[in-house]
Amino acid sequence: MKGQQKTATSSVEIEKSRTPASEQPWRSNHTQPAATSPVSRAPSKKPAPVISIGQLRVERDSLILDSIDWTVERGQHWVILGANGSGKTSLLSTLTGYMPLTAGTISMLGETYGQTDWRELRKRVGIVSSSVHQMMAGHETAVDVVISGRHAMIGMWGEIRAEERAQALKILHQIEAEPILERPWRVLSQGERQRVLIGRALMARPQLLILDEPCAGLDPVAREHFLQFVERLARNATAPTLVLVTHHVEEITPAFTHVLILKGGRVLAQGAKSKMLTSATLSRAFHAPLKLRHKRGRYSLAVSQSLSIVI
Predict the structure, then answer these.
(1) Is the pTM of this model over 0.70?
(2) N or C: which terminus of the chain carries fewer CB neighbours within 10 A?
């Protein structure tokens, strides 16, 4: 898809955020206004949402996504949850410009689809997915993989500048991967690779970080270690907005504030995590009687016994 492609429908442009006008303090040589005259203030502008999707529709041979409305505000961390085939991957592909939309509007980081080169915008978005794993060269070290994220390239070549290596070392410390910085990719564990890929994404200083089923292939212990790392990352004051894509509620850590639940290419529920995650909603999402449990900020899900369902 070309970044300059226009949608068939009209797009509502989301204004970029701007700094509110500051008020100058009164000085002694200024005439004070009358007590009955209020001081005029320039209205402050609300920052543009990180993601804003309106009536998104995607069709190919069949309907893939329909009537998707979704807004991610700054300061929120979201989970996209749903069964296999619910539309999670298609939504991500459309959001990042790899799957053209049929109708609707998309704005991301203050830019509007059809009016911005999406190839350039993607440089401000970090994506960690299993597809990137397969493209890494086995001989590259962890620090080289992280540095490659600065240029959005697969495979390091050319001279590495001192400031790039210094930034990579700082990020390796941030992602708690300093001990493995010189290890080649082929000997890293799955959990270590996921951390390094997050470091690679952070190298470009993204404003949005998408984690596409990052725990796939991890054993239970490695998964928990990785999730605790994501939790610490999310609570860092400088962390980008996080979007976690999963079909396991067990992977939703306390730092995630909101959830978007998809079913059959449509939005089943969305909003604050505490309100949207219920046994009834998840039973509808996964087509089975489910029991949701919540303890110490974490969730678990059990399939209830039912004579009408064969498992």
Answers:
(1) yes
(2) C
